[in-house]
Amino acid sequence: MSVVAREALDRLVLDVPDYPEPGIVFKDITPLLADHDAFTAVVGALAAAGQDSSGATVVDKVVGMEARGFILAAPVALALGAGFVPVRKAGKLPRVTHAVSYALEYGEATLELHRDAIAPGERVLLVDDVLATGGTVVATRQLVESCGGEAVGVAVLMELGFLSGREAIGDLPLTALMTV
Prior knowledge:
Layout: H1 3-12, E1 14-17, E2 25-28, H2 30-34, H3 36-47, E3 61-65, H4 68-80, E4 83-89, E5 97-104, E6 107-114, E7 123-131, H5 135-146, E8 150-159, H6 165-168, E9 174-179
Parallel strand pairs: 3-4, 3-7, 7-8, 8-9
Antiparallel strand pairs: 1-2, 4-6, 5-6
Helix pairs in contact: 1-3, 3-4
């Protein structure tokens, strides 16, 4: 990761104590997104997860998970010259979908992906803002595989190191720009 991206993360990801509830320290990325140079550096660092050692793109699609993952995944896809595919909460996509339900700390969620969004054999990079318990990544990987695609890596802005996300995603290579 570039020095510019590292410094931008340290300077522009702000802690908001007691949000959304007491005892939680929320990591606010909106100042980072508002700074063109910082946002560009971070997108480049995330896009590196979809490149080989020579800088050549090795993915066909970049999948972004609802909702903040969209903000990061779309410019990563542009940087890589790849297509962008959104993974949405249940009922948000207008055509026939694959769906995966998974457990959350406080209940259950369902994610969906258009059935024709990824062609068999396409290589896919999964992008999100945060890796927490890993449930969203695991469900998204299942969706990609249900289309016949291959998830080749995960790139996130930050990993919550005190949770079990890294273990939950198994052998899927992980690029986390910062760990908190």
